[in-house]
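testing teh design pipeline on a random one, pls ignore if ur not involved
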């Protein structure tokens, strides 16, 4: 599978939107590192970001909101929060 910046941004959006658990995000990242293809000028960035996501379930390497903002910025995206009544 070819991994793009959009692929990673979509996975992050799914996690942040509670459509994926942290475990599922980590598992996807681990598989992407093993089986994914990173092509072109973004290959190094994608490998770094996905490697980071693959270790996010380790307590000392967990991700804070600021980490997600930074990762999304590196990918050319930004996050927006909507607060709504429950």
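output:
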């Amino acid at each position: 599978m070819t991994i793009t910046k959009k692929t990673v941004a979509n996975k992050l959006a799914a996690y942040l939107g509670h459509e994926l658990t942290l475990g599922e995000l980590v598992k996807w990242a681990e598989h992407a590192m093993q089986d994914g293809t990173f092509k072109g000028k973004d290959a190094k960035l994608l490998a770094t970001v996905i490697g980071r996501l693959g270790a996010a379930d380790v307590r000392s390497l967990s991700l804070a909101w600021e980490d997600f903002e930074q990762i999304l910025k590196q990918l050319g995206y930004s996050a927006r929060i909507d607060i709504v009544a429950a």
